[in-house]
Amino acid sequence: MNTVSKKTATPETVEPTNTAFQNTLKSSDTEETIDIWFYRPIGYQIARFCAWVGITPNTVTIISIFFGVAAGILFYDQSLTINVIGMLSLVFANMLDSTDGQLARMTNNKSRLGRILDGVAGDFWFISIHVAICLRSMNEGWSALIWVPGVLAGASHVVQSAMADYYRNVHLFFIKGTSGSELDNSRDLQREYDQLSWSRNFGMKLVARNYLNYTKLQERFSPNLQKLLAVIREKYPNGLPTKLVTDFRAQNKPLMKYTNIVQFNTRVLFLFLWLFIDQAWIYFMFDIFVLNPILIYMCVKQEGVSRYFYQQIQTARANEYKAL
């Protein structure tokens, strides 16, 4: 969806500094504190090295999958020493996850495949972690019923991550335009998917199908936001007014903290806590009964913001019509 021009919503309007490091960040609005002070600086140095030796962002993402999956495998063992090695492996996987995006922005090597791989990487990490915790719990005397909360927590994680990622990209779309956002819509993705052939493009068509389903999931959970984006696409084909960008940012920025809470850092800090006290199963309960209510609250608030701006645009349109 190409509706925002750089002239109406430039990076300079939201990013006060223009250092090489700052340019590898998405936006100060959407970055977590622990990322700014820990993951991003380390990721930046790794990205510089990768750019120097010619390693691509997608290669970094694939490497991160191995470290993330290895972490899950190491969480299966009840030895705290082995678990700590797994924690370090997961932290390093997340460093690489930070690196791939920074490297892509640094080298201007962005692609939809890279975005898809980035999301798939996290799925692989947490599938490994959930399976390991279920098997570990069964070794500790739990029945096979432990797979029920394990699967429910896994499904919750998928929705939490999908919506957090979506709302972040919506915010970036408003404040930076298409150049600073990775916001997709199912209409365009469906058209691209239909153009692929199962016989000639089997791998890409399978990936495109999964990504299309992922995007449709995001859109189903945000009906008011879809109405807002649709009217923006129609009314402002050449770029958003500066006032709309400023007002949206002011109302929407406080909601970014909820997208951060249901993402990687919060859940992993608590996962490490449960592993340290040898009660890994609590991680499932935390995902279901703590993060899900935050997800619901995040969606409700975001829908409220979308409804407000949709009504504002419709009212302005009606007033313009009456003035004719």
Automatic annotation (TrEMBL):
Recorded GO MF terms: transferase activity
Keywords: Membrane, Transferase, Transmembrane, Transmembrane helix
Species whose genome carries this gene: Larkinella bovis
Domain of life: Bacteria
Name used for this protein in its record: CDP-alcohol phosphatidyltransferase family protein
EC numbers on record: 2.7.8.-
ATP-binding keyword on record: no
Keyword Nucleotide-binding: no
